[in-house]
Write a structure and sequence with these properties.
The complex is a heterodimer of chains A (277) and B (297).
Chain A: H1 3-24, H2 27-43, E1 48-49, E2 56-59, E3 70-76, E4 86-93, E5 100-106, E6 115-119, E7 125-133, E8 138-145, H3 159-164, E9 169-173, E10 176-177, E11 183-189, E12 212-219, E13 222-229, E14 238-243, E15 250-257, E16 262-268, E17 272-273
Helix pairs in contact in A: 1-2
Chain B: E1 18-21, E2 24-27, E3 45-49, E4 54-57, H1 63-76, E5 81-85, H2 91-94, E6 106-110, H3 113-132, E7 146-148, E8 151-155, E9 160-165, E10 175-179, E11 184-192, H4 203-216, E12 220-225, H5 232-255, H6 260-266, H7 278-293
Parallel strand pairs in B: 4-5, 5-6, 6-7, 11-12
Antiparallel strand pairs in B: 1-2, 2-3, 3-4, 8-9, 9-10, 10-11
The chains are: A alpha+beta (277), B alpha/beta (297).
Chain lengths: 277, 297
């Protein structure tokens, strides 16, 4: 079964569970319940090692300052080689309406499987990053994040403005790229990433969902980073990841949203100091 | 953990209101975070009395506080409450709405307020329950029934309030109320005094809107948090100083290729001593500003 299907099924199952779970008023139970369900759906009964920071580290703030934009940094502790590499990184936020926020796919060509992004966090929740190795072994890092202050919400700041510039993209590379040395690339996608879960109390209608669901980044024709994502990712989805530059070659990013709109952007990779930098 | 919250709350008792101009009454909010002890009474709220009826401007952060405000109106006048105006979507300004439903007023808001309530209402309600317990009882999202697209006049009898819906500034649904009779402009959270300004819309939009408001040169201004001490021009300059400082410093952080995490560690620290509740909101502001201006170049 494809990851996307798993993600959809999970979202549906959990959405169906939520009203009952809320009625239980047993917060802790719900927290554990979500994770158990997610864990079983994604990994069955495979063991998940806690890795003591030797494979994967999750950096998240103690408190979500702005519930709509919580920066997360997933750092991995190994160089990607054809023999041993991190194949996937799962990002899970137990108490979010869609707990499986992102599934990233990496290759030996990624250099490193680190990923930085920004997410929405609506409740006090455990955030988890799980690395799946090419041999199938799983390692998890997690952090409990407190919810934001009272007037912060995981919603956009200006929906109309976000809609007006939907699909605009930027790829940023470091200034002084060296051949063979893993370097950071940043992908920015202008998109409102609307969940479709907000109901207008006057019309009793739901704002239609429109969010980025798939991202594929390649360099010199080879996949570097792919992601299955949803509205867990903040408005204007933003990712920092690694690639291994060589002379020339194009970095290309392709994005598909939930309405099947497709956006793409590319940049030519040039080693050494670039003009103007 | 904090001490367990009580199961039932009595309400905040009689509200102190002061008449800041003839017929315009203000209850100053506390310069605190929202808690069960203060019934989320942290925003400046109030009402305007006309010959025919009364308009509420912001209803407070809980139904119990809204009810106390309703009682304060009843002590001053027996005229009916015909309008409940919400200056924007933030919970400390809207959750008292529920206390006024029985009066059957028109609930008035910016044309983008319903969408903002839809996107944020449930999260606000959950947070209020979680943080205030019984003090949040009965608080609910009551959406506007009368929308302001650009401007709207509300006739209170012998006094016409002039409402204006602004482009995205503090939030994307900021509404101001002007009373020509007394030259009073109720800015709500377009102006913070003492309490650190909170950026939840667009910092560049807010600076622009502040410029326009300054040009209106009103006689008197009511801020959303804190009380103006030395004239509103000085309060405006202080707020502008903070916003420009974090804007410039965030731009510099972006130019130095800092991440959000790096930027929030330092940006705004120069302003720390000038504001209350700095730790609650500065990092959040920098996060929002970073995400906003990242697209600039």
């Amino acid at each position: 079964m494809k990851n996307r299907t798993i993600k959809r099924l999970l979202a549906m199952t959990l959405a169906a569970l939520l009203p009952c779970a809320a009625a239980l008023a047993a917060d802790e139970g719900q927290k554990a319940g979500n994770w158990d369900l997610v864990r079983t759906s994604l990994f069955g009964d495979r063991p998940i090692g806690d890795n003591d920071g030797t494979v994967i580290v999750l950096e998240a703030p103690d408190r979500a300052e702005d519930a709509a934009i919580v920066p997360l940094s997933i750092k991995t502790r190994l160089t990607q080689t054809p023999d041993r590499f991190i194949k996937k990184v799962y990002l899970i936020i137990d108490k979010n309406p869609s707990p499986v926020g992102a599934i990233f796919t990496f290759t030996p060509d990624s250099g490193r499987a680190d990923i930085d992004t920004r997410v929405r966090i609506e409740e006090y929740s455990t955030v988890r990053a799980i690395a799946e190795m090419n041999d199938g072994k799983l390692y998890m890092a997690s952090k409990y994040v407190k919810a934001a202050g009272g007037c912060s919400a995981p919603a956009g700041k200006d929906l109309e403005a976000a809609m007006a510039r939907v699909g605009k993209m930027k790829i940023k590379l470091d200034d002084n790229l060296k051949a063979g040395e893993p370097s950071i690339a940043q992908l920015m996608v202008s998109h409102p990433n609307v969940s479709g879960l907000a109901m207008d109390q006057l019309t009793r209608l739901y704002a239609p969902p429109q969010f980025v669901r798939k991202i594929d980044v390649s360099y010199a024709g080879k996949p570097i980073m792919s992601a299955e994502v949803d509205f867990t990712i903040s408005e204007d989805p933003n990712f920092r990841f690694y690639f291994v530059p060589k002379q020339g070659g194009e970095m290309k990013a392709e994005v598909v949203d939930s309405k099947d709109l497709k956006f793409s952007s590319s940049v030519q990779v040039v080693l050494g100091k670039r003009p103007g930098s | 953990m904090l001490a367990p919250l009580p199961l039932h709350a009595e309400g905040p008792g009689a509200l102190e209101v002061r008449e800041v101009a003839p017929g315009i009454f203000l209850h100053p909010g506390l310069q605190e975070d929202m808690t069960a002890q203060n019934f989320a009474g942290i925003a400046n709220i109030g009402f305007v009395v006309g010959e025919k009826c009364v308009a509420i401007i912001d209803s407070g952060g809980t139904k119990l506080l809204g009810e106390a405000l309703r009682q304060a109106v009843k002590r001053r006048t027996d005229k009916p409450i015909c309008y409940v105006i919400n200056s924007h979507v933030h919970p400390d300004h809207i959750f008292g709405n529920a206390a006024f439903k029985g009066e059957k007023p028109a609930f008035v808001g910016h044309h983008k307020l319903p969408a903002a309530m839809a996107a944020r209402g449930q999260v606000y309600r959950n947070a209020l329950n979680r943080n205030l317990g019984a003090a949040a009882e009965g608080s609910e999202i009551v959406p506007p029934t009368l929308l302001v697209r650009d401007t709207l006049d509300l006739d209170l009898g012998g006094r016409t309030l002039k409402l204006k819906a602004w482009p995205t500034a503090h939030t994307d649904n900021d509404l101001t109320v002007y009373d020509p009779q007394t030259g009073t402009l109720w800015l709500a959270d377009l102006l913070f005094v003492g309490h650190i300004p909170v950026v939840d819309g667009s910092i560049r939009g807010w600076l622009k809107v502040m410029g326009e408001i300054k040009g209106l040169a009103p006689e008197r201004v009511v801020s959303g948090h804190g009380l103006i001490q030395n004239g509103w021009n000085e309060a405006f300059d202080r707020q502008q100083g903070y916003l420009l400082a974090i804007l410039d410093q965030t731009r510099a952080a972006l130019k130095a290729k800092q991440t959000i995490q790096q930027a929030i560690a330092t940006v705004g620290e120069s302003e720390r001593s000038k504001w209350l509740l700095f730790d609650l909101f500065n990092k959040r502001n920098v996060t929002a500003v970073y995400a906003e201006i990242e697209w600039e170049d």
